[in-house]
Amino acid sequence: MFESLQATKIEEARLDDNKIRIKCCLIAMHFLKVCGVEGRWEPIFDLSPNTMRDWAWCHAQKIQNLKHKKIAWPNNFFADDVWIVSVDPTDCPVKEKMHNTLSQDSYLFSFKLNGQA
Question: What is the mean pLDDT of residues 91-115?
Fold first, then answer.
């Protein structure tokens, strides 16, 4: 992804020369993967929350502008071939709704988090 952000011909996705830093791209990838609380970023990346937020959003927008190049189906997608596609979403903790009779909502249970998601 970092290499694509530097080499792309898409102007909106290309990193400016002064923004080419692998650490900042990793911050954005971490942000996109875990959607974590900002306070947990500081020990990992050793930067201020404001700096990390700025870099994460800058790179996330650049990555978003690459979606047409990175997420592409073959031209003959609707041929007679059988395609199997898997999507693994990120689970984010949520506050579970209260039920009168049930203690947990099984629809919200996440095996990744071992709880509601």
Answer: 64
**What angle do the packed helices 22-34 and 49-64 form, to 10 degrees?**
80
Three-state SS string over the chain comes to CHHHHHHCCCCCCCCCHHHCCHHHHHHHHHHHHHCCCHHHHHHHHCCCHHHHHHHHHHHHHHHHCCHHHHCCCCCCCCCCCCCCCCCCCCCCCCCCCCCCCCCCCHHHEECCCCEEC
Question: Are 26 and 88 in contact, with CB atoms under 8 Å apart?
Answer: no
Q: Does residue 117 register a pLDDT over 60?
A: no
